[in-house]
Ca3427-like PBP 2 domain-containing protein (Friedmanniomyces endolithicus), 304 residues
Amino acid sequence: MAQPPKRLRIGFIPEHFSTPLHFARTHFALDGDLIPEPLGTGALTTRLKLPSSEDQAFDVAIGLTEGFVADLGRSKTAGKEAGFGLVRTYVESPLCWAISTGAERGDVGGVGDLRGKRVGVSRVGSGSYVMAFVLADQQGWLEKGVDPFGVEVIGDFAALRKAVREGEGGNGGADFFMWEHFTTKHYWDCGELKRVGEIYTPWPSWMIAARDPKDVRLGGIVEKINQGVKYYLEHKQEAVQHITSTMKYSKEDAEAWMGTVKFAEDVRGVDVGVVDETVKVLRKAGVLTEAAGGSEHMVAIKRS
């Protein structure tokens, strides 16, 4: 007797952007297992590329555009199989990356103080890593043969916060790190961190990647996510309640974030122009080289 197919394992970052996914599961019986990955997009890509038989492997992942594109470009440069393809667009609006340090740090007062400092990142290739170099490019700090920062691979958000509080004096921590604005704001408000500045992604911020873009089960997942987004748009107070009861956001911050984000009302497909523009910026920032290629090997399902 044939075994029923396994449910798709869907990796996501457990932040406020996951609210429509929560609704897709609770109200529309999303036919897949939502699995949180707090280490971010770099960890999502790693788990997408694990053998499907491994318990930690993902079939689908919902993460940051820059992290997915950077990983696909580096794989191409190294002559390796990509391991996944971009299949859907989740969030159309850009992401605001906050730049933070420890509240008591006197050596970091503004963005101009960051050159030559140590940036803490969750993983090499993560959004926190990629955007540090986009920041360096915007500031004019990229010089051939000279690194704009020292890079310290720290781990998750809690570890990054600890690293910048303890990092002064070169004792193995970090001098600053970058994370999404509203996730970070609570820690400015409570006096744990200090805001240094911010930078927006020059591209739509979230996409959906799949290990096997031809998996027929993806169609059902897409429909449920679309329903989750629609429910989110029509039930804002329920969304606020979910965010404030499960994450460290105030009602005011949740509502402020909701005024800035634009989820794709139909997540089907990926705009190749968006991916090529992202590649262009990442090349200029020194994250990718010309050998990384472009959307032709990254986008598995195009928007019509």
The two ends are 40 Å apart (CA to CA).
